[in-house]
């Protein structure tokens, strides 16, 4: 699975965080390259407040892990 969280800034810098799959208490979760667990509501907050999006080659997996539909705004194919 290839996935990254992209967060643009007002200064013109774009932050890219690779996402990977981990298991916490036997449940699969997405974790950023900085160790932050990413769930659907946190992603929506980043998207709505900062214009973030997720690029992935595995849309069904990422959407499922976030608990969001594949058609969710901000989930884009890589």
Question: How would you describe this structure to a colleague?
Answer:
The chain is built from two helices and six strands. The chain is an alpha+beta fold and about 80 residues long. The model has no long low-confidence stretch (mean pLDDT about 95). The longest helix has 11 residues. A hairpin with a 5-residue loop joins strand 1 and strand 2. It has a six-stranded mixed β-sheet. The chain starts with a strand and ends with a strand.
Q: Percentage of helical residues?
A: 10-25%
Major β-sheet annotation: 6 strands, mixed
Structural class: alpha+beta
Apparent shape: globular
| Count of separate DSSP helical elements | 2
Detail the poorly predicted runs.
Answer: none
User: What is the multimeric organization of the chains shown?
Assistant: single chain
Kindly, what is the distance between the CA atoms of the first and last residues, rounded to a whole number of angstroms?
A: 11 Å
Give the integer mean of the pLDDT values. Answer: 95
Question: Would you count the extended β strands for me?
Answer: 6
Question: What portion of residues belong to β-strands?
Answer: 35-45%
Q: What spatial order of strands do you see in the largest sheet?
A: 4-3-2-1-5-6
Give helix and strand order, one letter per element, not per position: EEEEHEHE
Using only C-alpha atoms, the radius of gyration works out to 12 Å
